[in-house]
Amino acid sequence: MLRHPAICVCIVAFLIPSAAYSQTGQSISVPPDSPRWDLQEAKVTEYQGRKCLLLDGAAAVVKDFEMRDGVIDVDIATPAKRGFFGIQFRVVNDGANAEWVYLRQHKSGLPDAMQYTPVLNTGANWQIYNGPGFTGAVDIPKDEWFHLRLEVVGAQAKLYVKDMEKPALVMNDLKSGVQKGEVALYVLTGATYFSNFEARITPDAPWERHLPPMPPGTLTKWKVSPVYDALARNLERPLSQSESGAMKWQDVEAEAPGFVVLYRYYQAPHLNVTFATDFSKRLDPQPGTKVVYARTAIESDRDQMKKLDLGYSDEVSVFLNGQILFRGRSAHRSVPPGLVLVLHAISPGARGSLIHLLENATLYSGLSTTRL
Predict the structure, then answer these.
(1) Neighbouring C-beta atoms of residue 256, cutoff 10 Å
(2) Is 275 exposed, middle or buried (0-12, 13-18, 19+ CB in 10 A)?
């Protein structure tokens, strides 16, 4: 069955077959009408003279097949003006965790026409991961067949679009942490046709991460709280000492280049937001929105003024020593996602920086790049 989170991306729940297997050198070709497809709202049809699969808000999972490293080939045609279509791979836990690379017809030729995101606890993380290795420009043909190839090698992957000699998107560091899983075709929205699907298992390559450097001064040590109902709490008020003491805090550490990706630690909620049909409501309170508190200690040997660089998605409240410094909301198409704060007069031994994180469409997907 499909899961439909209330954001511009969607995660699908894939049923993992009990007899799934993989074998180096195994190559499969799966026709559209093959019983090896687990069709989740997908349909077998014909388009431009080809028998193919039609996906629009649908998925097609290859049964009894798991892949660590390998090559996936498929032909695609899409008449849609807008959409999100692509491949999920290394899918595990009924679709809760995976790697996902997709194209967007409405972004053809733009720097984010292609996107890669890890799927973590059913949540997509495109707000956090972007730029080289995650997004790229490509011209997406409309209403004609073209070829797509995905090569997965260890902790890296390459996506080829039309040109099989030069990758259109190089994913230098796959982020989900999953090393083996199912393969699926997935389309969030926008009618897209698939044919000539093939997959080939290749020998496992060494697992080598290509992490970016951690910027000097990054605040890497954090404690995060349990999840709370955001609409039931005053997010401009800091936690009292008794409230903080009663919470069960979890130690987490930022990953390079300074991200605390909270979907790694929490199940992503999926809301039916009011602005899905009326964008003027994007700043309205959204029932079901969740909040988590993140805290860290900042120590200084003297009074001083420091600049704090902070990125977040999608809402944040920042406190220092019990005083609110900033409350921001980077709702879709409203304000930029980054900001700079100036912390005044950090006293000797000053401690207790507290941040509320939440998201108006799902959950607080991340706190990014906080450094002094």
Answers:
(1) 14
(2) middle
Model confidence pLDDT, tens digit, residues 255-275: 999 888 989 999 988 887 777
> Domain spans of the chain?
27-201, 221-371
Euclidean distance between CA atoms 168 and 149, whole angstroms: 10
Question: Over the stretch 18-48, which tens digit does the pLDDT of each residue have?
Answer: 344 455 668 999 999 999 999 999 999 999 9
Candidates 3.90.550, 2.60.40, 3.30.1600, 2.60.120; CATH matching 221-371: 2.60.120
With b for 16 or more beta-carbon neighbours within 10 A and e for fewer, the 17-44 pattern comes to beeeebeeeeeeebebeeebbbebebee
Closest among 68, 88, 117 to 14, alpha carbons compared? 88
- Answer yes or no: CATH 2.30.33.40 is held by domain 27-201: no
**DSSP bridge pairs for 319:** 324, 354
How many CB atoms are located within 10 Å of the residue 206 CB? 7
Tokens representing 177 are 């942490």
> Are the beta carbons of 189 and 276 closer than 8 angstroms?
no
pLDDT at 360 over 50: no
Domain 27-201 and domain 221-371, same fold? Reply is yes
Return the C-alpha torsion angle 188, 190, 194, 199, nearest 10. -30
